[in-house]
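Why predict the complex rather than its parts? Because the way molecules touch one another can change local conformation, and only a joint prediction can capture that. The input here totals 532 residues.
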Amino acid sequence: MKILETKNLTKHFNGVHAVNNLSVKFESGKITGIIGPNGSGKSTLVNLLSGFISIDEGVVVVSESKSFSKIKPYEISFYGITRTFQNIRLFEQMSVLDNILVVLTERRFLSALFEKHGEYHLKKAEEVLTKVGLWGKRHDLAINLSYGQRKLLEIARAMAMEAEIYLLDEPFAGLFPEMVKIISSVIKELKTKGKTIILIEHNMALIRELSDYVFVMDSGSLLAEGEPNAVLSKREVIEAYLGE
Amino acid sequence: MEYLIHLLILIGIYGILGLSLNLIVGYTGLLSVTQAAFYGIGAYATAILMTALGFNFFSALLIGVLITVLASFLIGFVLSKFRGDYYALGSFGFNIIIFSIFLNWQDLTRGPLGIPGIKRPELFGLNLTSNLSFLILVVIFLILVYLLSRFIINSSFGRALKAIREDEEALQIFGYHTLYYKLAIFVIGAGLAAVAGSLFASYITFVDPSSFTLMESIFILAVIILGGLANLKGSILGAVFMILLPEILRFVGFPNEIAAQMRQVVYGLILIILMLYRPQGLVGEYRL
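Output of the joint prediction:
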């Protein structure tokens, strides 16, 4: 069983502590919400966990025997981690289907050279795209999708990875209620499959609905933690997050 | 007729060069300006092996490709440290270095004097001395390079190359060590350019450094941008356009004393207009 834990994780940017001595443990098979005001270090944390930026101090523990203090983005999949981005990052001038197939097919280049997207991969891609309602758009270029559809495609791409740990950076931002519903059900389904989900989100209603546990960050540090209803009613959280 | 065959041979050679560079620039998004260097290594290897060591064309071609593959592996490894504009500048530098080697390693390349007396290919005792027979050989190689390129881009490997072009970091999240992919396609593209170099050396029967300058790399880049990035047919169409356009301008009837200069001006103008109104090239699927 994969676990995910940070021990004294620290990241500075020009003297500013973006993440400061952070020690948190994400429970396996649960949805953990991360909230906090803008600039509190939520996305920096996800970038550290996914190798997008280097860790200054501290370690990330990913199983009982494995931990890292240095990691490259291409290595995170070996630890069963995948992610989405706050600002959508699709393979824009590729079809919707190819955006999924590239995640499903061979990684070693010699094997990839002699592999075509066979029946198995196509079936898998159909399954994932149908789930987010994009199978009908499979031949469209990703760049031609609406904002909401692009968000859905990014979630679908992460799903196709069949990772153990999902880092979802504001997956609901700017979405219509109908699409919120689809992504919400996808996240719930991942949970029922025993996946660990780390959800950065500003919508408190969704945090209450989806999260089993919540971390509140402020100025790169942990401000509070606990079950959603309990945490969201704490005075210091309301003050820091809502400015009340 | 000989004139037409000559143009078709050039189109074939530049078509191969266009295909080789389109794999690197159009499909993978690596703005490389080194292709003339690999074209040159293939040409010089063939020239030296055939004139000094008595190799036949096909074995010289094969060894030329192998030497180019080795050189491009080293160059590609260094270039893989760069991204975007810096990649282009780095590749620019390598073209200049290779050109300088062609020019200054006189014991090997005879420097600016070049290497004359390169033979035409011989196949099963048949000497392909006529331009028509050479054209057939070039067309066969063009088809082979086209089919190989199509095989690459239609594979899962090709799909990953396009994803590198679109967002290399995002692709890495899914377990792709993209450096190997970039290096592999760079080496493949260089090897194919060496094939064009061997054909060129044997066709012209002479090589000197002036054929492999930085301007030549830019010309090959123009072939694929005009024809269409990330489109194999576009690579060949671009070669047709870039080779035939200056020839067509010969018949425009400019006054003799300024004809050459006017042809250059009009040639440049047509390229600018085409880029203004058709920035994706004639049949391109991707814009830089």
